[in-house]
Specification:
Blueprint lengths: L10 E6 L5 E6 L2 H13 L19 E8 L12 E6 L2 E7 L4 H21 L3 E3 L1 E6 L2 E6 L6 H7 L5 E4 L3 E5 L5 E5 L21 E11 L4 E4 L2 H15 L9 H21 L2 E6 L5 H9 L2
Helix pairs in contact: 4-5
Length: 293
Amino acid sequence: MKYSITTHMVHAAGLALADGSIWDIVAADDRAYDVVSALAKTMQLQSPEKRDRNKSPYSSPRRLIVHIENPKKDSVTISTIARLTVKDQDTICVIVSNVSHEMRTFQLMYLSMIICRDAQYRGGVLLHGALAGWNGNGVILAGPGGRGKSTASRRLPHHWQSFCDDMTLVVCDKKGAYWAHPWLTWSTFMFNGPGGTWDVQHAVPLKRIFFLEQAHEDEFKPLGIAQSICLLNASAEQASWSMPGQSEKNALRELRLQRFDNICHLAKAIPSYVLRIGLAGAFWQEIEKALNG
């Protein structure tokens, strides 16, 4: 089935990333309005007219166009809630209507992961880690679920900033510098969870990456590049399971090879550490030591 692409859309949200890419996320019709509005609210996005396009090296934005269609079967699964086609600067995502709250959350996640996949094409990577800031610099506190990312984010003192506690999108700009964007914690929307919003356009220069371990005392230990690559690859795998293309064998292989190449460059550019955290210590002081060299 073909979908018309028109200049008039029902609703649009503008997204700009630190790698210079810009997006217009648009609803193709009235039925898609609620979906785009929900995504824009969660990502704290405004209309494209309020975005300063002069800051972007791209002459025109990419468009993510959301269409709605009726499900073809009575039962809808995660693998059938959305599908993609790409035409020039437009990525068209068709999602099915009349789904449960949990399935709608997966649809919104799928839309956000289209942005992440595009960032990966330009050297970026989505990591399973919290993002924090100190003196204008960004650090990622990485680790699988249960390692203490959320707890550590809550314990940061007032002179620190906690931007997100679960996912961080790392992008690479035209000069080769790495920036970190807070990303969304979709699990908070599941099963009547509290949800939330994240300012995904707020980027900070990425300076250090810390892999968390629980311990009796706070300390950090530098990692070699090979160790860093292994841990970063595991973190990216945990974060990217819902990225479009994961269910297709050839696309999955391409995504993994590309992601691994990006991780190798990231590991060489940004120092990584193991950060052991105790229950009552001031672990952020260890991070500050690492940032101070």
